[in-house]
Amino acid sequence: MSQLSKQIGFWSALTGAALMLPVVAQARVDFGKPGDPVQLVVGYQPYYTESWSGVVINGKQLWKKYLPAGSTVEFQIGLQGAIIVNAMTGEKQHIGYVGDMPGIVSTFRNLPDRGGTDIRIVATLGTSKQQCNIFLVRKDAPQFKDGREAVKWMDGKNTASPHGSCTDRFARLAFKQAGITPKTYLNQNIEVITTNFRAGKLDAAVIWEPTATKIVESGLARRAASGEDFDALDGGFMIMLNDLMTQRPDIQRAWLEAELDAQLFLADPKNAAEVSKMAEQQTEQIDRKVLWASLYGENPKNVGGGDVKVQLDYIVSERVQKLIDEATEFLYSLPNKPASAPKIRAGGVDDKVARDVLAKRGLKSPVSIIKAQPLSAFQ
User: Fold this and answer.
1) Containing domain of residue 191, as a range?
2) Once rounded to an integer, what is the mean pLDDT over residues 309-327?
3) Which of 181, 201, 229 is a domain's end point?
4) Amino acid 199: pLDDT
5) d(Cα 37, Cα 176) in Å, to the nearest integer?
6) Which of 24, 114, 294, 325 could in theory staple to 49 by disulfide, Cβ–Cβ 3.0 to 4.6 A?
7) Are residues 85 and 13 in the same domain?
8) Cβ-count burial of 2 within 10 angstroms (0-12 exposed, 13-18 middle, 19+ buried)?
């Protein structure tokens, strides 16, 4: 087993609780003066398709175009956003690429009992109804006419998702809309879910891309529904230390310029093959066709497929703010309250620089939409 695989296995085992844990903040980092070279550590998720703008920035080294000469960037993989949030709470990482739930939780870390670190959402990586919100069912489950029928079948069945994540919020919403109560709704990470599908111990689970496509292509489960069936949005966010933002506004702007380049690159169908190759280089044991399909591939409508794979919003638009509001309220409703208030704190969303970058490029949100392509388009 490679060192990366060992690290992923270790961190994955912790993710069920990591979203909720307070972390003691370290001493503030000195990022230098505007114009000086900077040494950044970026937490990103090549194992979460909706955040692949980070994969592009890393793979094409887009940051070199904008950061001061002599700067360095270390990209550190987090299998789940909660791990990145914890690292940023200790100021061991400075910029993070995370899903909507850990992104929101990060903004509450400035409280003294949660680490006292000011972390803010500075941009939107993308939104979708079929990236984090994907139901899988065991391979011998009945054939369903649509996703809603599939979820109704889960009444009294054994189900799972990583609790506290975007998948958890979607699962609970879908169960409620379908009017069902599973026999069990277990808190399991993606490795355990994969193992339990293989062992026949799970009837259904909710998981994100590209793991969802990998499990399906491995023949362990079938895709059954998505957020398309329940009009449920998921999202990804860029989060940043406020220390970095206040000390080095030049670095914040530089990184957001690179992020915009990356989102525009992702959206061009001509780049799909190159994107999947970069994702393959930055992940392990995932076939390139699986990676391509997770971002660009079309799925049948009766299993939650839709025309739009990802909308690249870039800023926190009204659509994205609505998602943040609903997700924050959900996090506040949980017994351990990873969000300590029903509304995100003042300053928790700070996309002013992103809006300025967008305006100066003459662009509007969404900057583009990645549309589903037939699987025959894979190259």
Assistant:
1) 134-229
2) 97
3) 229
4) 96
5) 51
6) 294
7) yes
8) exposed
